[in-house]
Amino acid sequence: MLKEFFSFRKNIIFTGIFIGVSAAFLQKLGNPANMGVCVACMLRDIAGALGLHRAEAVQYIRPEIIGFVLGSLIAALMFKEFKPRAGSAPLIRFVLGFLAMVGALVFLGCPWRTLLRLAGGDGNALFGLAGLVVGIWIGIFFIKAGYNLGRNQKTYPIVGWIMPVIMAGLFLLLIFRPQLPSGAIFFSSEGPGSQHAPIFIALIIALAIGFFAQRTRFCTVAAVRDVILIKDTYLFTGVVSLLLAALISNLILEQFHPGFQGQPIAHTKQLWNFGGMVLAGLAFTLAGGCPGRQLFLSGEGDADAAVFVLGMIAGAGFAHNFDTASSPQGPGLWGPASVIIGLIICFIIAFSMSDLGKKMVEAKR
Amino acid sequence: MNQRVDVRGLSCPLPVVAVRNKLLEIKKGILEVLIDTGTSKDNITRMATNADWKVVVREEDGEYLLTISK
């Protein structure tokens, strides 16, 4: 029985362990604390490097993001799963990506970093995790009520290649670091943006993560969603593996510091740790997967997932320019308002694109 | 004539939810499912197998036809 459990799940368990251990080591090699891999933070840093926001402490072209997309691309090409597709409510997906990023930056982390913060002993992440589960649970309510973004369609190969080409372009910018009169490309000289593992080590690890995650469909949001919605614990096993592997690695590397106060790149305003992740969890669920998963889907030709990622980058620019992103002191001036407005927008989208909305329209006729 | 569900083009988790609902409805018999992504093929195969249905996968031109029976 136990043997069967592990043989069926060995790949997803391996992927979870690989991500967890890699994250801990990337921190040891220079990435910010409890941020070995964080899709939201790393997209935010890329937005900063491109000058979409001017928060000087968080500007860097993170090779991890590039590796996730290209690793998934390699796996998809090798296993004949590169399928260019597009056209399932792309603008809605952009908005969901935007709002997911706004929520994640109120908490200060994506679902991956939620796990990594827990594995580093950051108790504040418990509130983020609770918010994430509640957000997913609300999303499931709408999925059960017929929420549907519509079908995508097969499209020209070039459409599927756009995101990988953007990533290759970012890599060239990272390597050659051109200096434009505006000051771009921006690279932080202090703060989290200045802390990073060596480029090629980070890239190779991320390529491997992208490869394995594409094969196993690793997704932190679907992990929780599938347990609640269809009683399937396959992906959940991967998430638990990630958490445990990161925790054990942190203990070995002496990166485990339990507590609430003074945790790295975190704040103690628990209501907004919770609220930010309710928003992010709901937006991710409505879009079909966690931000890591959206990157892997982008790599296998899903242009709608790519639009979601671009929405996240735009959201990061907005969050810092409009002071909604948190700092270690707590949420930005407009952080709480952005969470509430974001939730309202998500509810309107979810309601109007489910049977609930259709019924209301029919009743009016 | 077997019943057929076409989940091509739908994003996760709608394909697996649609098939699961259909299987719960028919309880026994044969259901054919048209799928266009490996992810949905894996998810649906896992879900159906866990619920004691037999699944046969046929691949053609990058798409999959699952025959699910009990």
CATH superfamily caption of chain B: TusA-like domain
Largest sheet of chain B: 4 strands, mixed
Structural class of chain A: mainly alpha
Helix % of chain B is 25-40%
Order of helices and strands of chain A: HHHEHHHEHHHHHHHHH
Shape of chain B, please?
globular
Largest interface: A-B, 26 and 20 residues
User: Unreliable stretches of chain A, pLDDT < 50, 5 or more residues?
Assistant: none
How would you describe the overall organization of this protein?
With 365 residues, chain A is mainly alpha-helical. Chain A has one domain. Chain A has helices at residues 2-28, 39-49, 63-78, 90-107, 111-119, 125-144, 157-176, 199-216, 220-230, 234-252, 270-287, 291-299, 303-321, 335-352, 355-364; strands at residues 85-86, 153-154. A two-stranded antiparallel ribbon of chain A has the order 1-2. The mean pLDDT of chain A is 96. Chain B is α+β, with helices and mostly antiparallel strands and 70 residues long. Chain B has a single domain, classed as TusA-like domain (Translation Initiation Factor IF3). Chain B has helices at 14-26, 38-50, and strands at 3-6, 30-35, 54-60, 63-69. In chain B, strands 1-2-4-3 form a four-stranded mixed beta sheet, covered by helices on one side. In chain B, helix 1 (14-26) packs parallel to helix 2 (38-50). The mean pLDDT of chain B is 93. The chains are: A mainly alpha (365), B alpha+beta (70).
